[in-house]
């Protein structure tokens, strides 16, 4: 093709080019720059940077520059053949309209069924959308590599005793990922192999460059120092010799919340308030048991009972005579930083406080079980409330207990009618 003929074609088709250009049709080179071109009735002439030209055509009416197989994903593709056939739909043919920058897809009977807008065309990329749609399909000449999109671990939190083992497996998605291989690393190998107490993070990472990973927190601790009456306990080497149960009353595992009890009641219930509280006459100033001050007692009643009797102790009634609710002194001993270390952590996905003896390294876990009031169970996963067996003798509608959240822990008091957890103790 001569240069003068190219210039003549440019002049003749100037109006048509303005229309096509206004409609946004562009052809790009592999470096991302726009390729200059002119349009004829049956071909397109592309110009390079050194003055030569390449003529695509004649078209009948297929445009050779889009012919071939284009990939939307590893498993999705569309083929435009030079003879006008396409697998865009069964038995379909197509026509590329250079002046409009569109592809008309016809059904097997030759009836137009869809119009595709061409937004960008390079040697390797074809960007299409259905006419009028804002959703784009980016197609490439090369079949894409399917990267890993997610890794799911069989466990995200694991609790082990020393030398105990548990299998952790990974599920890699999608199933047809080109490279599904993963690597495993640990932030602390000694903990990961359950040879040392502590906490570590196991990381499972894809090796295909996708950056996808998943993590599991592993905690190794000695949570069982012995068993009495079928209930496990831990010896924290406290000065009083108190042995603390490994789980709450009503629970079978350390991380389970268990049952909730109003102070001095031994069964659970739906609603926790003064109207349902066993030891009052419907209000916070009408106590009928455990009362040392007449202005809190019903009609001036006092009995001077300051510690729960066995028949009103939820631990004793539910677990047997060897167990009881801790006194306020025993809770204060547990909170004493001279004897224990407190850590806000997770056990099998449950938030709570791990209490570790400074003397022998033994630990218990207290889940943040919340506390019910009225019909609402609030603060689960954020706060922990545990009753003691001791009455607040300065205010008889209050009893002492343990209270903690992520930033602090201490012994405190609360209304006797509230529902709280119970962690039993026994003295050898």
The residue ranges in which pLDDT falls below 50 over 5 or more consecutive positions are 1-24
Average pLDDT figure? 85
How large is the share of residues in beta strands? 35-45%
Summarize the main sheet: 6 strands, antiparallel
Report strand order across the widest sheet: 6-7-8-9-10-11
What is the strand tally?
29
SSE class:
mainly beta
Radius of gyration: 38 Å
End-to-end gap: 105 Å
Count of the separate structural domains: 3
Number of helices: 5
- Residues in helix, %: under 10%
Shape: elongated
Can you describe what's shown?
With 428 residues, the chain is mostly beta strands. The chain has 3 domains: 3-140, no CATH class; 150-220, Immunoglobulin-like, CATH 2.60.40.1080; 226-426, no CATH class. It contains 5 helices and 29 strands. The protein has helices at residues 3-12, 14-22, 189-192, 314-319, 328-335, and strands at residues 36-39, 44-47, 53-56, 68-71, 77-80, 85-86, 92-97, 102-106, 112-121, 125-130, 137-140, 150-153, 157-160, 170-173, 182-186, 198-206, 213-220, 226-228, 231-235, 243-245, 340-347, 350-357, 363-367, 371-373, 376-378, 384-391, 398-405, 408-415, 425-426. Strand 19 (231-235) and strand 20 form a beta hairpin. The strands form 9 sheets. Strands 6-7-8-9-10-11 form a 6-stranded antiparallel β-sheet, with no helix packed on it. The protein has a 4-stranded mixed β-sheet with strand order 13-17-16-15.
């Amino acid at each position: 093709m001569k240069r003068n003929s190219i210039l003549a074609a440019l002049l003749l088709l100037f109006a048509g080019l303005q229309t096509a250009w206004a409609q946004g049709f562009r052809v790009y080179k592999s470096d991302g720059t726009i390729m200059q071109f002119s349009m004829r009735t049956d071909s397109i002439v592309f110009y390079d940077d050194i003055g030569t030209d390449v003529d695509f055509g004649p078209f009948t009416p297929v445009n050779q520059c889009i012919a071939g197989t284009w990939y939307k994903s590893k498993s999705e593709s569309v083929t435009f053949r030079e003879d006008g056939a396409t697998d865009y739909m069964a038995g379909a043919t197509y026509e590329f309209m250079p002046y409009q920058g569109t592809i008309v897809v016809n059904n097997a009977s030759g009836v137009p069924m869809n119009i595709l807008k061409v937004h960008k065309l390079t040697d390797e990329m074809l960007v299409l959308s259905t006419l009028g749609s804002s959703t784009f399909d980016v197609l490439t000449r090369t079949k894409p590599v399917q990267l890993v999109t997610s890794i799911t671990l069989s466990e995200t939190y694991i609790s082990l005793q020393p030398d105990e083992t548990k299998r952790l497996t990974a599920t890699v998605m999608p199933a047809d990922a080109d490279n599904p291989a993963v690597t495993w690393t640990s932030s602390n190998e000694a903990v990961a192999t359950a040879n040392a107490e502590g906490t570590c993070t196991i990381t499972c990472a894809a090796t295909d460059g996708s950056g996808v990973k998943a993590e599991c927190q592993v905690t190794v601790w000695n949570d069982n120092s012995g068993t009495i009456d079928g209930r496990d306990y831990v010896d924290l080497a406290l000065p009083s010799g108190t042995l603390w149960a490994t789980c709450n009353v009503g629970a079978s595992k350390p991380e389970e919340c268990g049952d909730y009890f109003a102070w001095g009641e031994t069964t659970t219930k739906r609603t926790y308030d003064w109207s349902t509280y066993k030891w009052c006459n419907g209000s916070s100033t009408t106590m009928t048991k455990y009362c040392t001050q007449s202005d809190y007692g019903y009609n001036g009643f006092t009995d001077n009972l300051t510690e729960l009797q066995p028949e009103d102790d939820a631990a004793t009634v539910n677990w047997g005579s060897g167990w009881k609710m801790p006194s306020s002194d025993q809770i204060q001993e547990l909170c004493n930083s001279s004897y224990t270390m407190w850590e806000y952590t997770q056990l099998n996905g449950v938030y709570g406080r791990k209490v570790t003896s400074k003397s022998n390294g033994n630990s218990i876990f207290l889940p943040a079980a919340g506390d019910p009031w009225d019909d609402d169970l609030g603060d689960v996963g954020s706060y922990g409330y545990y009753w003691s067996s001791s009455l607040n003798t300065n205010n008889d509608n209050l009893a002492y207990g343990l209270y903690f959240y992520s930033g602090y822990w201490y012994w405190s008091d609360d209304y006797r009618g509230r529902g709280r957890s119970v962690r039993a103790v026994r003295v050898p």
